[in-house]
Amino acid sequence: MKRYYLLGGLSILVICFFIWPEPLNANDKFQLHFTDEALRRGYTAEFEINPGQAWGNFRLAVVPDLVNEPVDLEIKKFNCLEIAVPNDLNQVSDCYIYDILREDQANKEPLHLSRPLIISIKLNDIANYFSKKIYYWNKISSEWIALPSTVDYDNGYVRAITHLPFSRLTVLEDTAGMRSREVEGVASWYQDSRHTYAAASNDYPMGTKLKVTNIDNGQTVMVEVKSTGPFHPFSDRRVLDLTLPAFEAIQEKWKGVVRIQIRPPFGAGVILGIETTQPSVAPGIPEPSIQSHAVIAINEETEEIIFSKNYDTALPIASLTKLMTAAVFLDTNTPFDKVVTYQVGDNAVGSKLYVNPGETMTVKDLWYTMLVGSANNAAKALARSTGLSNDEFVNRMNEKAEVWGLSNTKFYDVTGLDPRNVATVYEVALMSKKVLKDFRVLQGTTSPAYSFKTLEGKPHTIENSAKGVSRGIINSDWILTGMKTGYLDEAGYCFMLKARNNRDSLNHVITVILNAGTSDPNLRYRETNELINYAITKI
Questions:
Q1: Does 9 score more than 50 pLDDT?
Q2: What ranges do the domains of the chain cover?
Q3: Regarding predicted confidence, which is higher, 534 or 65?
Q4: Residue 494 in contact with residue 317, Cβ under 8 Å?
Q5: Contact, 451 vs 521, CB < 8 A?
Q6: CB-CB contact of 37 with 67 (8 Å)
Q7: From 3.40.710.10, 3.40.120.10, 1.20.272.10, 3.40.50.20, which CATH number describes the 315-536 domain?
Q8: Which residues of 411-448 are buried (b: 16+ CB within 10 A; e: fewer)?
Q9: Are the beta carbons of 433 and 303 closer than 8 angstroms?
Q10: What is the pTM of this model?
C-alpha cells in the first residue's frame, strides 16, 4: 500500500526517498492525504497510469474547497465478478472503489462534500456507440445505478459527477441497442426541400421521432427519420445526419458537424423542430383547451411529450423551485431529527410558517412545512440546516440541474421568490420525475396536511397548498403520486402533478403548467384535469 501526502501541488512518497508513483497492480491500494492547503487548491488523483498513457485509468478530480477538514482518499480495484451485471448491460471498464475518509476517525458524522467529485474511467473498448455510463453499486437496493455521464470517445473515457464520498464504480453499456436507448456520436447536415426537421439514419426505422441534443451547448431539436444514411464508415462516429434547418437549430452551419446525443424514440405526440404548434391528434379525442402560457403532459416512463404548448420557453417557476431544493437537501444526508433554531434571516414573504426567531423545531417539521404548505421561510431554514451557505446551496441546485441536462433551468434562491428562477415546462417535468423517485418527496407533496409542535409546545397545522385537490377540482379518481404549486406575480399560477389512473396501472403522467395568469387560481387545476384526461388515454 502506498500513502502520499499532498502539500499544495507536491506529492511526497512516505518512505526513505522521493520517487514518482509507479504503475500499480490490481492488488495495490492508492492512498492520499489531503492537507488544508491541497483542499483549497484542488487536485486530480490518477490511478493506474500505464506506459504510454498521459492519464490514469481511473481519475478523481477533487475540486477546490471540497471539504473544510483534512481527509484521506483511498482508491483500489475490485473484482468485477463480485457483483452481477443485468443481462441487458455489458461491462466495458475495470471496477474501482474510492473512499474519502475523515482524518479524525473518531468523528462518525456523515462527511458532507460541498462540491461534486468529477470521476473519469478508462474504457476497455470503444468500438461501438451503445450508450455508456458510469454506474455505482447501491448496496441497500442491491442494484447498479447510473450516474449522468458523458463519453469522450477521442480519449476513451467516461466522465460523471457525484456527491458521494464512497462508491463502487464501473462503466456499463446498454446492449439493448441504439433503437431503444440513448446514443452519442457525430451528425452532419444535408439539403432536403421536402422536409424541414428530418434526419437520415441507418439505425432507426422510417418515421421514428427523435430528440437530438448538441452535447456542447445543450440546444435540442426534434426530428423525424425520413431517409437512410449517413453513407460513411462508422469509424468517423457519424450516427445521424440532419436536414439543414434541423442542424442550424443546434449548430452553426459553417461548423459542418456537431457532437450529439440521441434520446430514445418518441411517439406520435412529439413536436418536430423548435416549433410550438400542436400536432394533430386522433379523431374523436379532443385536445385540451389551454389558456395558460406554457403547459406539457409527458409519459413519465418514456419522457414522450403527449401534449404541449410553448414547451421550450423558459419561464419563472415560482415555488416549483422547492422540488430542486428538496433534492439538494436530501443529497446532504442531514438527519430529519436534527433540531433547528429559527433565525431572523429565515424570514420570507409569501407563504410562511408563523414562528418567531428563537423557536426550535426539527428538520422533519421544516421539510413537510416546505413541501406541504410551500412555506418560504421553512425552505430557507431547511437549506441552512445543512450547514451550507445560501450561495453554496444554490450552486448545488444549479450543478444538479446541469448534471440532469436541464440546460434552460437556472436558480438564484431556494424558495422561488426570485423571478430569475426559470425553466421550461419540459425541464420541470423531467426534474419532477427525478425528484419524485424519493418516497419522502412524494409523501411531502401529496399529504393533505401536516401537524406538529415546536419544541416550545406551540402547535401548527399546515394544509397542502394545492387547494384544487381538497376542493375537488382535481379528479378524485386518479392516484396522485406527486404535486407542487407555485405563484409569483411574474410567474402567475403554476402547478405540477404526477398521477396514474388507478392503483393497478404502472403508467404515470406528469403535467406542468407555467403562468396560468394571476386572476384565477383555479384555472391551473381545471387545465390540469384536461391534460391528465387527455394524456392518460395516450399511454
A1: no
A2: 2-174, 183-275, 315-536
A3: 534
A4: yes
A5: no
A6: no
A7: 3.40.710.10
A8: bebbbbbbeebbbbbbbbbbbbbbbbeeeebbebbbee
A9: yes
A10: 0.52
